[in-house]
Design a protein that fits this description.
It is found in: Cell outer membrane. Helices cover about 55% and strands about 15% of the residues. With about 240 residues, the chain is of the alpha+beta class. The chain has 2 domains: about 90 residues; about 120 residues, 2-Layer Sandwich (60s Ribosomal Protein L30, Chain: A), CATH 3.30.1330. A 5-stranded mixed sheet has the order 1-2-5-3-4.
Length: about 240
């Protein structure tokens, strides 16, 4: 009697091979996927690094351009300043000549000195033309002088500075305790007269310098005469 064949739990070699091949086939798709994933990751890293390099390069170029622009601006600014100063100087010289012509026509060229002070043309009017000695009220001749100069004052741009100056000889009266009060009162008298003639008071400033800004030496009578004055500082327009 033939004994029945007992099946062993152990697989035969062929069966083991087939089983192994099946498992390998089931898992074989992971390898290409992993390769693709690694490749994509590498490409992403490369692209990111290239982008970072481009950004750094672009930022470096921007910084270089900004430095170049800054250097050019530093070089141009002094030239621009010189141009403005040169233009301002030409404008002042032009107006100085024009004002001299006006003074010539009024026969005041010898009595009113002109000087350039920063952006202003200063008319130095000796006190004897406007006031009696030690007084601050305009005399009739002084009002006439200012009235003749009124069109010139009206042509000025911006604020007109009216400065009262004295010599260094002290004055001490009940009305003027010192040269400061005398200079202030004389400058104020000129301002009040110009306002009475229609000038805008907002454009006028009265200032006293007493004897602190002499034009000449106070050691001589002629020098002291030059120092006793009212200075009218005009800022003239760039164009007529």
């Amino acid at each position: 009697m033939v004994s029945p064949v007992k099946h062993s739990n152990k697989l035969l070699p062929v069966e083991q091979l087939l089983t192994t091949n099946a498992q390998q086939k089931e898992e074989s798709w992971l390898l290409p996927y992993l390769d693709v994933f690694v490749l994509l990751t590498m490409m992403f890293i490369v692209l990111l690094s290239m982008s970072s390099i481009d950004l750094l390069s672009s930022q470096s170029k921007v910084n270089q351009q900004q430095e170049t622009i800054s250097q050019l601006q530093q070089e141009i600014e002094p030239l621009r300043q010189l141009e403005m100063e040169g233009r301002s100087s030409l404008v002042l010289q032009h107006w100085q000549e024009r004002i001299h012509q006006v003074l010539d026509s009024l026969k005041l060229r010898d009595d009113i000195a002109l000087s350039l002070e920063d952006e202003y043309i200063a008319l130095q009017i000796e006190d004897r033309m406007l006031f009696d000695s030690g007084e601050a009220s305009l005399k009739s001749e002084g009002r006439q002088v200012l009235n003749n100069l009124l069109p010139l004052f009206e042509m000025a741009a911006g604020t007109i500075l009216v400065e009262g100056h004295t010599d260094n000889i002290p004055i001490e009266t009940s009305q003027f305790p010192s040269n400061w009060e005398l200079g202030a009162a004389r400058a104020s008298s000129v301002v009040k007269f110009l306002v009475s003639q229609g000038m805008d008071q907002q454009r006028l400033r009265a200032i006293s310098y007493a004897d602190t800004q002499p034009r000449a030496s106070n050691d001589t009578a002629s020098g002291r005469q030059q120092n006793r004055r009212v200075a009218m500082l005009l800022r003239m327009p760039d164009t007529e």
